[in-house]
From TrEMBL:
One Pfam family, short name: V-set
Lipid bilayer topology: Single-pass type I membrane protein
Location(s) in or outside the cell: Membrane
Biological process, per Gene Ontology: cardiac muscle cell action potential involved in contraction; regulation of ventricular cardiac muscle cell membrane repolarization
Name of the gene encoding the protein in the UniProt record: Scn4b
Primary site of residence: membrane
Annotated ranges, domain Ig-like: 2-126
Molecular function via GO: sodium channel regulator activity; transmembrane transporter binding
Taxonomic superkingdom: Eukaryota
Entry protein name: SCN4B protein
Residue ranges of the TM segments: 140-161
PROSITE patterns noted in UniProt: IG_LIKE
Amino acid sequence: LPGLHILAIVFALEVSVGKTNTVMALNNSDVLLPCTFTTCIGFQDLVFTWYFNSTELIYHGKIKSKASEPFLVGRNPRVEFVGSTTGKDNNISIVLKNVEFSDAGKYTCHVKNPKEKNAQHNATIFLTVVQKMVETDNTVTLIIVGVVGGLIGLLILFMLIKRVVLFIIKKTQDGKKECLVSSSGNDNTENGLAGSKAEQKAAPKA
């Protein structure tokens, strides 16, 4: 039924690891594995568990209610809880200490809320461990941007020159037209041309 469908959406338990589900860490460093959960009707005796590669339990905690912080049930000695559930966000993040290459893999944050008829949900983070962080070489990008910018600049300059040249040509042609118009009305008396005043003089008498 539509009403029951809406009710299920409202009561849904959700778990999130943030905007990205990939984390990179340096060998022998500490890395934060973020996780938060949301529920519209609150929680009671909520259980959350962190797994490595889906099977190995590395942290297990419980939370009595919104008014209390989580208490530890079991954990890997290198895992530390750094979240809080009495604040605005129900944060159940952990820190993995002294990361090794063998720690690379999938980390799953799993939550179970008895108050929502034991509703369960989880989210996953993929951890990559590296010897050193590689700086991104932006040289090629800068060259491409420079070339494109230069081409655009040349195109704009070419268009400006073209407009100036066309403007000069137009002005020159307009000037020639003016000269032709003014010369067509000249008196051709001294030229001896047909229709000139020289031919209109009477012949001298003998």
